[in-house]
Amino acid sequence: MSSETGTLEGVVVDDGEVDEEPITLPAPDETIFRMRQAILAGQHWFEALLGAIGRWRLPAEDYDGRHFEYLIGGEAFDWLVLAERLIEEIEDIVPRDERDGLLFDGRWPIEVDDELFALELGQAKHSAHLNYLYGVLVEEALQLSVEEEIHKENFQRAWGQDPRVDENMLMRVYGKPREQLYEQYRDETGIVLGEHLTYNQWKAFTYFLFKLRLRRQDKARVASDTRKGLAQLSRMELAVSARRRGVRPDEAGFAARFG
Fold it and tell me: CA 9, CA 33: separation in Å to the nearest integer?
């Protein structure tokens, strides 16, 4: 089933295709119960958590006064947000330093290789996870890299600064000012964005911009900009988040998926 049916059993991935997982995933309450019982029976909490993520059905939910959005744009899966939600159910049996290390620093409490991580998530969710990796995290890094370029250019000017750095970044990368991009986003999604975006709205808009960039740029420019985003991640020394993401992003992986 696609995300439009209200589950994460099958999710839309790149090019609008749907990866299907078994339609027998348990209800959320049962998933949480099984996770907790597995930990109490001796399984490491992180392994039990990954198993629960693989069995989770809801793409979004309201819980304890907060809205959790796990599936961005119906295609990009932010597994760490779901991990945060599930850890709330087991925080009494999870070491606090390990929990905080995962959620705040991206440190995995035990080693889990990439193949096992993908297996635990399942094909559909792992595919959507890669969409999130490249379509949100790398895209944000690209935006930051271009903003830094513009700051350097402004600093080198003899007179005057351009205070609208973000607008210049959007024009330079996506070819349109913010207002036009908001209008296009509204036309394509039916969602109206205000002046101040929530974090969930920002992630969805960023993923929209990523897909827009793939549509409007030629392959050479797509590769160049993606390389720039990956280099920015490297400069920011996100070695820890390589484990947080569950796979180390590179240009070859991007080309294989979106090229």
Answer: 19
213-237 b/e with 16+ CB inside 10 Å = b?
A: bbeebeeeebbebbebbbebbeeee
Read off the DSSP letter of residue 191: P
Strand 60-63, strand 66-69: pairing: antiparallel
The rounded distance, in Å, linking the Cα atoms of 244 and 238 is 9
| Residues whose CB falls within 8 Å of the CB of residue 241, separated by 6 or more in sequence, listed in order | 106, 137, 233
Q: Could you read off the pLDDT of 133-164 as tens digits, one per residue?
A: 999 999 999 999 999 988 888 777 666 666 65
The two structure tokens encoding residue 10: 């099958």
3-state SS, residue 72: strand
Tokens of residue 28, six digits: 């959320």
Could you give the C-alpha distances from 96 to 84, 90, 91, 103, 222, in angstroms and in order?
13, 11, 8, 11, 42
- Other beta carbons within 10 Å of 161: 11
Q: What is the pLDDT of residues 213-252, one digit of tens each?
A: 999 999 999 999 999 999 998 777 554 455 555 667 788 8
Report whether 35 contacts 49 (CB < 8 A): yes
Q: What are phi and psi of 185, to 5 degrees?
A: -60, -45
What span, in angstroms and rounded, lies between the C-alpha atoms of 19 and 13?
7
Determine contact, residues 162/150, Cβ cutoff 8 Å: yes
